[in-house]
Amino acid sequence: MSRGQFDDDEILGKAYDATLVRRLGVFVAPYWRRLALATALMFGGAAVELAPPFLVKQAIDGPIAARDPAGVLPLFGLYAAALLAAFGFRYGQTYIVQSVGQQVMVDIRTRIFSHIQRMSLAFFDRNPVGRLITRLTNDVDALNEFITQGTVALLGDLVRLLFIVITMLLLNWRLALISFIMFPAVMLASSVFQRIMRGVYRRVRQRIARINAFLNEQISGVLVTQLFNREEQSRIRFAELSRDYLAAQLESNRTFAVFFPLINFLSVTALALLLYFGGQAVLADVATLGMLVAFIQYTDQAFQPIRQIAERYNTFQSAMASAERVFRVLDTPATVVDPEHPRALPSPVRGEITFENVWFTYDAEAAGPDGSGLADTDDRWVLRGISFTIPAGQAVAVVGATGAGKTSLVSLMARFYDIQRGSIKLDGIDIRELRQAELRRHVSAVPQDPVCFSGSIASNIRLHDESISDEQVRRAAEIARAAPFIERLPGGYEYEVRERGSNLSVGQRQLLAFARAIAFNPEVLLILDEATSSVDTETEALMQEALERLIQGRTSIVIAHRLSTIRHVDRILVLHKGRLVEDGSHEELLAKRGYYYRLYQLQFAEAGELRTEN
Amino acid sequence: MDQLRRLWPFVRRYRRRLLIGALCALAATAVAAMIPQIVRFAVDDLNTRGVVLDRLVQYGGLLLLAALVEGVLRYGQRTQIIGTSHLIDFDMREALFAKLLTLDQGFFTTMHTGDLMTRVTNDLSAVRMFLGPGVSNLLGSTLLLLTAATLMFLTNPMLAAIVVLLLPMVAVLFVVIGGRMRAIFRKVQDQFGEISTRAQENFSGIRTIKAYAQEDAEIRVFREANERYRALNLRYVLLSGMLWPIIGLMLGVIGAFVLLIGGRMVAAGEMTVGELVLFNAYLAQLAWPVIALGWTVDLYQQGAASLVRISEVLQRRPAIASPPDAPRDFVVRGEVEFRNVGLRFSHNRSNGNSSGHHTRASSPADHPLVSGAPEWVLRHISFRVPQGSSLGIVGATGAGKTTLVNLLARVRDPDEGQVLVDGHDVRTLPLDALRRGIGYVPQDTFLFSVPIRENVTFGRPDATEDQIAHALAVSRLVNDVEQFPDGIDTLIGERGVTLSGGQKQRTAIARAILRNPAILILDDALSSVDTHTAAEILAGLRSIMKGRTSIIIAQRIATVKDADQIIVLHNGEIVERGTHRELLDLGGRYAEMYRRELLRAELEDE
């Protein structure tokens, strides 16, 4: 994931985009009451924070100048009260805004996730998992930053600055104008600094990402590096990457080393100016000494919001970029959708499958909705006018060379994609007229790569379907021949499967996938039966047996990669370049000595090789 | 503090830079401490009206000068001290990586890739943060606190005592709240990890999700995980939202006390207004350094913990290394012998901990009987492969085939018996020379995301075009390469083309044969290659491996039947050995495996 990150995710644009902000507003709007409260607290805080310097002025010009020690106490009381109030206001504001931010994050994240769930497989073919994860994590975080720092906090900076400016002008406009001299300089310095740092940070991030990607690969492949005596070259390459990173880091450090002293210098300059001009004002009796001291503090207080406003620019910019990416996902329309008025399957479902002149391409855009965008001869067609009927309960194997369209055929039956021409029917009803959930309750696909999820063995069989009882889970495992290995695991059905089933062997994962298919008890089964090279003969025999039990009494389409599978089916469909070229039983097709016969010899040549020896 | 000593070797070479940085910090502190003094004199002069315009100009000028000098010195402090931390960071990263490259598979099987990555990135950065900002803060803050405290005591001991006693509370507050924040944050991170794992699993398994119409249930589960994350985050925000306001409050309270007590003193004539302003100015000046001290405590704790984790790697001795007295100019000729070799299951791995490691033969996934796992992976293994001959190894998954060949290249060392190459125990040979003599095609093909050319020439960077072309031809990769967009210079991996399983294996074969090795090992290296091509490759190999030793592991007998000798492994022991013909005559396990393969062929003939 770390590697791809700097391709498209680092392009930054505007810091403010009205359309995007309006769309983000939709997510924030439900919580406007809480945000209004936070804003009120913010105003309170900004007002209360003005008090301490003023109270200092009152103390110096009042009781202290009048040599009245007792008079200091009430001012102290007010001072302490102002501090407590400021604390309360600030804490309350921060907490409320953050909690709204968290809530909005949950909303946005769930919304993105739900939307992605509705996407057809074509979407997942286009978008690598890592990129989708980034949408859900980093991008949503950037939006949270926008909400917590961009809404109330930004307003807070402006209000705080405005309040200080007004107070200073009201107290003494001459001293106020002197203080203001340095404000533009601070603003300028901060924004120049921010601009430089944006570039520097980007370089730092890119370079550490490169180090991470390299490191990850090197650690995974360390054995190869060692066995091929390549340690030295790896070290050299790593040092190069590391040196680039060092250069960016030093650049960032130097920028800070200039900026912090510069801001300090500007602040002291403001002090010197106030002392010089303010001192003259005090001497001329235009201002009091207490006033001068208060102004020194106000000037310092004003520096902070000025600097923060400059900093928020970066937050905004990355939030806008993230918002754009998030909305791009949310705006992707679902291509496989449920009909407005879905039909119901006749009950009970029999499981008869009909393909009528089915044309299909993965390039749905070029083909257009009715497939007229592509000529019949175009290479992009994966299936070209396939027609067949599978009566209920029949087991069919689909064979063909790589790229013949076998996998597509199965994906279409489960409606992972929509076809461009023709129709696919289940018990006489076009599957596009059914709800997807309804269709898939009766048609199950066992995918090629047996997928496991983290959780118990039982939850891997029943998934989230609570209506499948423990007993049914157990029975399914027994039928799928998975029970023997499950029962040997510590904890049996409660054994914790790790992410991607990494603590199970490929064979075990396959058996689990079979058990899952049985537990859901569909009328139609679609099986992608990939011959797994890393499975030993014994496990393979088990899987074969499970497969036989699986297809018994169900309409089944099996993409066969194994000889033994073909023996157990009633009928074989032979695909070649997207066309159905032969159709019949194993014996019939062999006797025909046609395409199947040759394919058979080629694809299962391991057997062929042995035969030539005998 | 004991940990810190481990840093010394890395710090030592930058002594000069650090010294200059420290001197800058010292001088900057002295200058900074003068600024409030100047303000104080100005205020007092203003208050007593004993001032003339010239004096004001002087004060203003002095302030600017002080700020300028301080600025230059702080620049020096930062670039020297924090800059050095970046240099040390670089050195340590290089040392860590160099160390990783020498470590054995035993180490990598116990460590997850993610964990190692964390050590080289996050942990290293924690150490750097301590060495840079941490040390710089510690130095700057301590110096300023000491100087300011001294100057305040000289001005007004009582007020100074209040400030000096109360200020450290701010640092304590920071450490306490910060510590609790970190504890909760860890939970927040864990929950976040769960969210991203959920999404990851969902997206990777979307076919299954859709096939079983589980979308709504998945959304529900995802939302629940998110709600838990939110709840934890709110607990975190409750604390983190408090941190800065409460520090502000604390500083304000100290300021209020100064105002109250100092104000009364001034009113009573025991102190001047300028002195009160001076205290206020020091208070403002010390606020950040005191917080920074608290932060430094944090940085130290994290840095020390991270340093331990880094040291674990740096101090680790590779279990497999060249012996110091290994012969210098050893070249492998190719005779291989195993003498009563035995290897135990390694016990440092817990059950089920199998992600991201490479010695598949001993993975618990291949041993469903986790609880009753046997003690030995391999036992009583003896055989001899004369130079130039070939050995075939067959056996079920988990029989120990991969582990066996791993002993030859010293991926692991045996627990008993000896592995000999050209009559020498491999443990007495120089490791690089031993491995240089071996061309290894592992079972899990690993290619790097660099162009195909670089992958193929991986073990022979100096190979000529002719040699490369020949390797591509023998491994039957040449036609595939022609079809790639940039031919042999096509980048592979995530940012280039994705190779099929067979293409990957053939690339790995090309990589191995380009080394022109004395011993070639194919570990189930043709499993994803179609049988026709596999036969071609084997035929090609036979011609180039004339006079060289080859060891071929396979699931299918067809791949090994021409070997000079074949051994059958079962549960870690050699149960049968001989030539193809002899083994068939023996009528045992091998003959049975072969019979099964033939049965399939007959089925086809029906």
Keywords:
heterodimer, A: 614 residues, alpha/beta, ABC transporter transmembrane region fold, Rossmann fold, 3 domains, disordered C terminus, B: alpha/beta, 63% helix
What does this structure look like?
The complex is a heterodimer of chains A (614) and B (606). Chain A is an alpha/beta fold and 614 residues long. Chain A folds into 3 domains: 13-172 and 317-333, Up-down Bundle (ABC transporter transmembrane region fold), CATH 1.20.1560; 173-286; 353-613, Rossmann fold (3-Layer(aba) Sandwich), CATH 3.40.50.300. Chain A has helices at residues 5-8, 18-28, 32-48, 51-64, 72-117, 121-126, 129-150, 152-171, 173-180, 182-220, 222-227, 231-283, 289-331, 364-367, 406-413, 436-442, 457-462, 470-479, 483-488, 506-519, 537-551, 563-567, 586-592, 595-603, 605-613; strands at residues 353-361, 381-390, 395-399, 421-426, 429-430, 443-446, 455-456, 496-497, 524-528, 555-559, 571-576, 579-584. A 6-stranded mixed β-sheet of chain A has the order 6-9-10-3-11-12, sandwiched between helices. In chain A, strand 9 (524-528), helix 21 (537-551) and strand 10 (555-559) form a beta-alpha-beta unit. The radius of gyration of chain A is 36 Å and the shape is elongated. The two termini of chain A are 52 Å apart. Residues 1-9 and 605-614 of chain A have low confidence and may be disordered. By secondary structure, chain B is an alpha/beta fold. Chain B folds into 3 domains: 9-156, ABC transporter transmembrane region fold; 158-270; 336-605, P-loop containing nucleotide triphosphate hydrolases (Rossmann fold, 3-Layer(aba) Sandwich), CATH 3.40.50.300. Helix content of chain B is 63%, strand content 10%. Chain B has helices at 2-5, 8-11, 15-47, 53-102, 105-110, 113-155, 157-204, 206-211, 215-267, 273-314, 401-408, 431-436, 452-456, 465-474, 478-483, 501-514, 531-544, 557-560, 580-586, 589-605, and strands spanning 336-344, 376-385, 390-394, 416-421, 424-425, 438-441, 519-523, 549-553, 565-570, 573-578. In chain B, the strands form 2 sheets. In chain B, strands 6-7-8-3-9-10 form a 6-stranded mixed β-sheet, with helices on both faces. Chain B has a 4-stranded antiparallel β-sheet with strand order 2-1-4-5, with helices on one face. In chain B, strand 7 (519-523), helix 17 and strand 8 (549-553) form a beta-alpha-beta unit. In chain B, helix 6 (113-155) runs antiparallel to helix 7 (157-204), helix 6 runs antiparallel to helix 10 (273-314) and helix 14 (465-474) packs across helix 16. Chain B is elongated, with a radius of gyration of 35 Å. In chain B, 47% of the residues are buried. The model of chain B is unreliable at 348-373 (pLDDT under 50). Classes of the chains: A alpha/beta (614), B alpha/beta (606). Chains A and B meet through helix 4, helix 5, helix 7, helix 10 and helix 11 of A and helix 3, helix 4, helix 6, helix 7 and helix 8 of B.
